Structure formats: C-alpha cells, structure tokens
Amino acid sequence: xxxxxxxxxxxxxxxxxxxxxxxxxxxxxxxxxxxxxxxxxxxxxxxxxxxxxxxxxxxxxxxxxxxxxxxxxxxxxxxxxxxxxxxxxxxxxxxxxxxxxxxxxxxxxxxxxxxxxxxxxxxxxxxxxxxxxxxxxxxxxxxxxxxxxxxxxxxxxxxxxxxxxxxxxxxxxxxxxxxxxxxxxxxxxxxxxx
Length: 194
Description:
- By secondary structure, the chain is of the alpha+beta class.
- Residues 1-13 have low confidence and may be disordered.
- The protein has helices at 2-8, 57-73, 96-106, 119-124, 164-173, and strands at 27-30, 35-37, 46-51, 80-84, 112-114, 128-129, 131-137, 142-148, 188-189.
- The radius of gyration is 16 Å and the shape is globular.
- The protein is built from 5 helices and 9 strands; from the N terminus they run H-E-E-E-H-E-H-E-H-E-E-E-H-E.
- It has a 7-stranded mixed sheet with strand order 2-1-5-4-3-7-8, with helices on one face. The protein has a two-stranded antiparallel ribbon with strand order 6-9.
- The protein has one domain (17-189): Glutaredoxin.
- Helix 2 (57-73) links the parallel strand 3 (46-51) and strand 4.
C-alpha cells in the first residue's frame, strides 16, 4: 500500500528545462486568434514567459503585478508572454473563451496564449500557475536565464521584499550573472491531462 501512495505522489511533469538550457520554441494561439511564436521575439533582449491561468487565486493575486512587470520591462527589451497550460475539461474557468474575457476585462498589454496540447508546458516543465521562465536572447536561440517565482510574496504585493524576475533582468542588462537563477514557483498545480 505504501508503494502505491508513493507512486501517486510522483510529479506528472518530468524533465523540462534547467537554467542554461536552450528554450523550447513554440507557436500558440493568442486570445485575439493569431499565432504567436517565441521566434517572433528575435529582436528583443529576452522574454518573460509566464505560465498562468484564470482560476487560480495565486495567478489572480499576481495579475496586476504581471501587467506592471510587462509595462516596466518591455521597454527594456523583456516583454511578457503569458501561456495558459490548463486543461479546460479539468478547470472550465480556464477555457479559451474565458481567457478571452479575462484578457479583455484586465486589458492585458501582452499576449495570452492557450497551450491546448500542453506540449509547451511539458517541454518547459511548468508545474505551477504562475511559473516564470526568463529567457535571454542568445542571437539564434533563447536560453533559460531564470526560473521560478515572480517575487517573494505570492499573496500580498505590499509585502514583496525581493523581485526575483526584476533582479534577474537587471543583472542581464548589466551583463552580470543572475543573482538567484532559480526559486520555487508558488501557485496552483498545472491541470495536466493524464
């Protein structure tokens, strides 16, 4: 019986990327119906790739901070690209139609892509919403420079002491090593199909 319990606790996602790895390419449908690819950002210094969703309280708590992060960092060459990896049959609030409503209601200034097959989330190893993968443009590909949480206060924006993504971007802009290349993503589990 103990063995069965242990097997149930194994993560659904194995593998994924590590800091220093080449970022997997993707082409996914945006809430406006257009395809968006990682290669579309070839002229940017990097991309703040965030796996997020509609329903999760953590994702909702970070929503305004993600919008602010995009507004602050896109002008420095690091725009946000958000991806919803959740299966809508498991979490109906994360359906494509609901994504479109949410993006309109919050006036997202960045793409909000649907990962219908969940292949992109699996390739990156996304486990939570939100889960950040900061990608650095290396010329002909993107490299994972940081992965984990946006900051150190998942629920209370007024209690943030460390802005992990902002610190990592500042280091990249100064051509310095990222001070903390990996943190633990805090949020709801990605709703993967079995």
